[in-house]
Amino acid sequence: MPWLLPTPFLCTWRVTPEQIDHYQHVNNVAYVSQLEVISWKHSTHLGLTIEQYQALDSGMAIIRHEINYLAAAHVNDVIDCATWIVQCDNKLKLARQFQFIRRSDQLTLLTARTEFVCIALSTGKPKRMPKEFANAYGPATLPSLPQATMSPVATT
Can you list the residues of the chain whose pLDDT is less than 50? Predict the structure, then answer.
């Protein structure tokens, strides 16, 4: 696959009829849902489950989404979804990059970036990342890369 960044965490998404909108392509809400799905799968892969978040009274709350919709997906398309942790200050903030590629033609359908801040689940207020978060997310963060590699690029 023509990934924009090295060593992605991957999962597969098969588009269902329920995810199709009145334009006969995948509704934008379904893409946002898949951003959440792959983020949680990656966090779980790194050893952080929702139960651990709750026990630590800590969570990573979204403060910004930037989504580039580059091409439409349709029912039964198989989409390879990739994510990377591209920034983690091991204190408060974390950022993820995403790329979704349709398997049949290897066309990039979406790129996105999501920024998170650590919060106390009990109050919703910002708090320092627990060491468990820093120990999981910090080592999984890609080394600094030129900003150009983050740019949305439609591949054909």
Answer: 148-150, 153-156
Q: Which CATH superfamily is domain 9-142 in?
A: Hotdog Thioesterase (3.10.129.10)
Cβ atoms of 71 and 133 closer than 8 Å: no
- Domain ranges within the chain, ordered by starting residue: 9-142
Task: State how far the Cα of 73 lies from the Cα of 65, in Å rounded to an integer.
Answer: 20
pLDDT of residue 104: 97
Nearest in space to 156 (alpha carbons), one of 103, 108, 112: 108
Tokens of 14: 């098969």
Both tokens of residue 53? 């978040």
Beta-ladder partners of 99? 82, 111
Residue 145: per-residue pLDDT: 64
Q: Round to whole Å and give the CA distance between 146 and 52.
A: 34
Distance CA 22, CA 25 (A): 8
- Phi then psi dihedrals of residue 33, to 5 deg: -60, -40
Separation of alpha carbons 91 and 89, rounded Å: 5
Given this model, what pLDDT does residue 67 score?
Answer: 98
Per-residue pLDDT, 144? 79
- The predicted model scores a pTM of 0.91
